[in-house]
Amino acid sequence: MIQLDHSGVEPFLDEEAWERLIPRVLAAHNTLLEGSGEGSEWLGWRRVLSVPNDALLENIEQTAAEIRRQADVLVCIGIGGSYLGARAVIEATSPYFSSAPVEDTTPRQPEIIFAGHHLSGAYLKDLFSYLDGKSVYVNVISKSGSTLEPSIAFRFLRQWMESRYENASVRIIVTTDAHRGALYEFSKAKGYRTYAIPSDIGGRYSVLTPVGLLPIAAAGIDIRSLFYGAVAMQNDLLSPDGNLALSYAGIRHSLLTQGYSVEVLALFEPRLSSLGAWWQQLFAESEGKNKTGVFPTVAHYTTDLHSLGQYMQDGRRDLFETFVLIDDDAGITIPPDAGDLDDLNYLLGKTIDSINRSAYEGTYRAHGVGGVPIMTIRLDSLSAENLGRCIYFFQHAAAIGGYLLGVNPFDQPGVEAYKSEMLTSLRSL
């Protein structure tokens, strides 16, 4: 389950302004539910949850089972929404360290490697050295098939696969537009297996489609629990009463109008690092238009308290924090030491996770006194179901936030602008 505590924001809110904002938040919510707002043709991320396609889920599970039987490595090629959601779920639900199967009868758990999200030649060179001698599948993910970074990576990986496997066309799986685009046409010509990206879903809202579900399933994660966790959260957020997403979106907007223009998503669990990257893209692309929007950035606590901590405590007061906590406990306790030379015996028997929670509590108090408005999101565990809930919660809130700002939450004209200029530069090389 997910909880939102906004008591750390209340002392900073203008109460009269908040009361005036509430009807606008409710109106934005109704606009989203009714599909009557700008960009409503991009609401497929809600529709796929309203009418679940269990046959598609089963098909994805079957393909993922094949990948797990046959592959040491699955290389996922994509950028932005084509990889961030999958990476977020895989890293959040996977062990930090895993060992190879002891017996041949143990199901293979392929390593998931991501490529095509930058332009590093050194990375590609090292990737091919690493893949040499391993059994490899490739999943290339791009709606248009013409985005520069994944297109370059796919050309190299496709040729590498074709030089090593007679059945390369079986090992290469394409996720793209259902009817058009360069990758769609290429896939038809080559006979690749293809999964469709729904035409009414944009990249940053696509993790609960084959874009994210195939890599996640290949990693051995229960995609039905993930998917139906999102379904449950969508149903929970239909009513405005006690609606966590409306509270979160409304508070963010209210703080922005008061001059708090930066949100720091402060993660107290390292496995959530890629979830933070996904969140950052979701809110930056949904709200950052017409010279407005909260600037979203991510901090990793307690690590970054030893680098950003000074600024968070005493720097410019134009920021607010949203802490993300996981309430489960790994049960690792501080052992005794007779000499106590490290002066840690006062923590004897305490778990590392309880110490982490104490660090949160101390940070919460200190930053609050320092003038930082704070919200806290709590998950009782990092289960697939909870991550599905969390994904939909943030998507719903981002849509509401865009409507409150008077922008289309589902387009990204600024991204298209830089792509156009970059292409001009490349053609002049």
Summarize this structure as a short list of keywords or feature phrases.
single chain, 429 residues, Rossmann fold, 2 domains, 5-stranded mixed β-sheet, 16 helices, 10 strands
Describe this protein's structure:
The model has no long low-confidence stretch (mean pLDDT 93). The chain has helices at 15-34, 44-50, 54-70, 84-93, 121-131, 148-164, 168-171, 182-190, 210-218, 223-236, 244-257, 273-287, 309-314, 352-369, 384-405, 413-427; strands spanning 2-5, 73-77, 111-115, 136-141, 172-177, 193-197, 262-267, 295-300, 319-326, 374-379. The protein has 16 helices and ten strands. 40% of the residues are buried. The chain starts with a strand and ends with a helix. Helix 3 (54-70) packs across helix 9 (210-218), helix 4 runs parallel beside helix 9 and helix 11 crosses helix 15. By secondary structure, the chain is α/β, with parallel strands linked by helices. Helix 8 (182-190) links the parallel strand 5 and strand 6. The chain has two domains: 2-36 and 228-415, Rossmann fold (3-Layer(aba) Sandwich), CATH 3.40.50.10490; 44-221, Rossmann fold (3-Layer(aba) Sandwich), CATH 3.40.50. It has a five-stranded mixed sheet, with helices on both faces.
Task: State the name of the first-level CATH class of the largest domain.
Answer: Alpha Beta
Helix content: 40-55%
Calculate the terminal CA-CA distance, rounded to whole Å. Answer: 52 Å
Strand content: 5-15%
Number of strands: 10
Overall geometric form? globular
CATH architecture of the largest domain: 3-Layer(aba) Sandwich
Number of helices: 16
